[in-house]
Write a structure and sequence with these properties.
The complex is a heterodimer of chains A (424) and B (425). Chain A is 79% helix and 0% strand. Chain A is mainly α. Chain A has a single domain, classed as Up-down Bundle (Amino acid/polyamine transporter I). Chain A is globular. The N terminus of chain A is likely disordered. Chain B is of the alpha+beta class and 425 residues long. Chain B has four domains: 85 residues, SH3 type barrels (Roll), CATH 2.30.30; 91 residues, no CATH class; 101 residues, MgtE N-terminal domain-like (MgtE N-terminal fold), CATH 1.25.60.10; 116 residues, CBS-domain. Chain B is 36% helix and 23% strand. Chain B has 20 helices and 22 strands. Chain B has a five-stranded antiparallel sheet with strand order 9-6-5-4-10. A four-stranded antiparallel sheet of chain B has the order 1-13-14-15. In chain B, helix 8 crosses helix 10 and helix 18 packs across helix 19. The longest helix of chain B has 11 residues. Chain B starts with a strand and ends in a 5-residue tail after the last helix. The chains are: A mainly alpha (424), B alpha+beta (425). At the A-B interface, helix 1, helix 5, helix 11 and helix 19 of A face strand 12, helix 7, helix 11, helix 12 and helix 20 of B.
Amino acid sequence: MTRLFGRIRRFRRAFVLLAVIGPGLITSNADNDAGGIATYSQAGAQFGYQMLWILVAVTVSLAVVNEMGARMGVVTGKGLADLIRERFGVRRTTFAMALLLFANAFTTVAEFAGIAAGLELFGVPRFVSVPAAAAVIWLLVVRGSYPVVEKVLLSITVVYVTYVISGFLAHPPWPEVLRSSVVPHVVPRRDFVLLAIALIGTTVTPWMQFYLQAAVADKGIPNEHLAYSQTEVVAGAFVTDFVDFFIIIATAAALFGHLSSAQLGSMQAGDFARALEPAAGQAATALFAVGLVGASVLAGSVVPLSTAYAVTEAFGWERGVGRDLGEAPAFFGIFTGLLAIGTAAVMIPGLPLVTLILLSQEANGIILPAILIFMLVLLNDRRIMGRHVNGRLANTVAGLTVAVLIGLTLILLVASLPGSPLSG
Amino acid sequence: MLFLTEILRAEVIDVRQRRSGAVQDLAVRAQEPYPVVTGLVVSRRRNLVIPWSQVRTFAAATREVVLRIPLEEVERHEADPNEIWLARDVMDKQVVDTDGRRVVRVNDLQLVESGGVLLLVGADIGLRGLLRRLGLEGLAKRVARMLGRELPMVLVSWEVVDPLGAAPDLVHPASDDAVRLRISGRRIAKLHPADIADIVEELGAKERQTVFDTLTEEVAADTLEEMELSDQVSVIEHMDAERASDILEDMPPDEVADILTELPADRAERLLSLMEKEEAKDVKELLAYEEDTAGGLMTTEYVAVGEHLTAQQCIEELRRLEPDAESIYYVFVVDQDEHLRGVLSLRDLIVAAPSTPIASIMIRDIISVRLEDGAHEVAAVLSKYNLLAVPVVDDEFRIQGLVTVDDALDAVLPDSVKRKLPRAR
């Protein structure tokens, strides 16, 4: 008997750990993907500490939106794509899926740009690294050895803790850092608006809403355990953004004020790596590259796969990596197609990788409000959520996020007109 | 043939040609074999429904529903909250096509007028239904014709459809609401357990529970056996403990042990305590062995008989024990201390004269494995001697259990191979 429960106890520890660090851990780590690293680094390099308050505000938004997704997943046991189809019908579902496909194609491009940029720091040319990475991802996911690899990739992203150490060792002006974190400060320039959209769009991403909710629903967590799931995803949001906070600080300390505006417009991944020098010294570039490649491969697998699941779920087509191509053509078509787009876009000669990555995050930020509106309607529908409908806090924070993003996008449109005072 | 999409948003015209709003939904009453339309929902917000008996005809060409009577005489009634509305509760939802044994989404609903009533006869689950919803069906048909093709229509008869999670309830969202649409008992429950397993693996966790709730314990046990371990665990974990323990009793102890090891300890202990003593004891013994050894792979369901029986007595003993299919092929002969003395195949028993002592026909040269032997060794032994199962013995050659060839194969095949195996159709 003792042997029996000794064995059960051993497994139970592993089980609880897995149950707790499920969806939240992966989503938060994938948050620090190529798009995240590039955007936070660019924010630090270009605007110093001035964007920290945006990150603080968007952290609250991330926590609230994550909680909404987890709650919807637990209560309905269904993914977001499922619910959109069942609540909104074919037309609006087609619209939502078109947006998702567009945003995620862009995100996949960013991940492959991250892989290319990271491996170029090791001297591997992108026309070798990118097709190889695409082939490896395809085989891992389709052949079914992905879960093992996922754990390896997750552990690689631990190198980002180096940013926290670097942030401290760089001795930033703490009073200024703290003030910038809480006092809003706006630079009335088009590139500030653009980067603000990218910063929000890389932290709260459209694909994440689909992935997180599907992952939670898949676990079949009963309503009584809703609180655990909520705590996990909210904690995940704060932990991720804690690291991101230090990415901005470390990069600001290393680069802000040392670069001309021409240099700022064409940043290289290698420049960003200098932020890690206080902690890692000579190894800064290698460490940065390893982290970037690890996170990019992780997100580069998750994004195409979760897109394929979402779209096929919404339209009721056969899906799953256990199927074969003939049984689930749409599923494999979307997955393979996104990998192909990601590969092809990065292979265009002379394309500046960092610019490409930032562009993708801006696209995500512009698309996000539409997805959040779908979520808000679902979360306020009593037929779907029962007594777990959205409270006032969640509605306010998510609604504000939508309003701010739409506002920023409109400002961006105006600023892009010729002769605008914000241009330049 | 009429589709729900074509009647939705059609104008409602009274007998004096006056407009009275648009069709927002159709209310139906569950009925065998096809649900019957009972009313036109003209205001979803105010729950206003015009009874179908007051409708004279639906003109598809002009998209008009013509009433028999003037507007003033129309008896509208408040919708019954338990009524099923097709667009709201059935359209776009997932259903099980029990004929094709798969989970599909309702893209459109097919209606047929018959003897003055409108019946729901089928679900459109194909691309054509999606295109119709998008208003692109006509265009797609013309394009297909230009290419010399026909746009295929994929319909399933309502007789073979089992709705899932349709019509959410206000108090318990997405709970057992599907039951309300049920007409003739669950059709899924009548499928082969392997097919049920295929279907439930495509469902979300909550819908999976809904399906399991409708299965008898034996069918539920057989279905679970066909599922992946992680799915088995999730089903058992969220099931009512009493019922879960009843289902586990119907499963082979080795599978039960595998599931229990993955559950939280308190849950596993509770399930064990609820199970019949006899079954619980078998499971507990198995739990003590490491997973990848003969001890961890074996089942304790095997047939062992005393060595002094005759062939006739032995066959009678088998009848009394009613062993499971996978353990009947070999009959093990043991002495009173459970030491393994010989083995009989079913064939040996049947062809022997009834009065022959089994000791004289049994094979004494027994192929066996030891408790601590690894999974690969066990598989190698099974393969080398072409056995369906091999007995597991302890240090003193007492029989402890039996490893069947499929359990051994499962343990040694890499996951990637198993997942690529074709699904049985």
